[in-house]
């Protein structure tokens, strides 16, 4: 796919650099007050590479965070010259805003999980339909969980990350319509069901871009089973 063929614009729909850091911290099961900066920086840059590969727009803030991580990493590599007063941990430059962001995001998610009836009245949402099991805990899926699933799909068809997609063979718009038609018919669909067993790389990529666009337009929603890890899609 050429650079100008198709862009997924994040705008304010998907997560930002702080959310990617939180995703990596959770994925590696580490404490935000003891972040392994070298490991997190390496993984962060890997995600950034995939986002650029997929031609996802508005990655400027992600690049800025990458620079911050690299700066902190370099400061931590500097030798300790035995100064009497201990220098502040360079990671605190990241930990402080990250901890504050976590508090704000947690409060926002708690409010968003309720239906607003009036200025001070909330009710519970109805149970989601078409999920794997009614008693399973379901987690809201964002951009980075989808990139994880996308990476697994790509690895199944080879290690070459080239993204050549012929416009006359498959289009994002067509795949968007296909996905909506399947969800309309079945009520919901798993992420893996979007792809046939013999799917080629160009088909996988365009399907993934179509999925991101549908989520950006708030037409579909993705959740993941906390037990099985299966991602399921349904109408918003």
Short précis:
By secondary structure, the protein is α+β, with helices and mostly antiparallel strands.
Strand content: 5-15%
Spatial ordering of strands, largest sheet: 3-5-6-4
Number of strands: 6
Summed over residues and divided by their number, the pLDDT gives a mean of: 78
Distance between the ends = 29 Å
Task: Specify the number of helices.
Answer: 7
Unreliable sequence segments: 122-127, 163-168
Task: Indicate how many domains the architecture comprises.
Answer: 2
Helix-and-strand structural type: alpha+beta
What sort of overall outline do the alpha carbons produce when their principal axes are compared? globular
Largest sheet: 4 strands, antiparallel
Return the string of H and E elements: HHHHEEEHHEHEE
Radius of gyration: 20 Å
Helix content: 40-55%
Q: How does this model look, in words?
A:
A hairpin with a 5-residue loop joins strand 1 (114-116) and strand 2. This protein has 236 residues and is of the alpha+beta class. Helix 2 (37-53) runs antiparallel to helix 3 and helix 6 (172-186) packs across helix 7. The chain folds into 2 domains: 1-125, no CATH class; 129-236, Arc Repressor Mutant, subunit A (Orthogonal Bundle). Residues 122-127 and 163-168 have low confidence and may be disordered. It has helices at residues 17-28, 37-53, 60-77, 92-112, 143-156, 172-186, 201-216; strands at 114-116, 122-124, 138-140, 188-190, 220-225, 231-235. The strands form 2 sheets. Strands 3-5-6-4 form a 4-stranded antiparallel sheet, with helices on one face. It has a two-stranded antiparallel sheet with strand order 1-2.
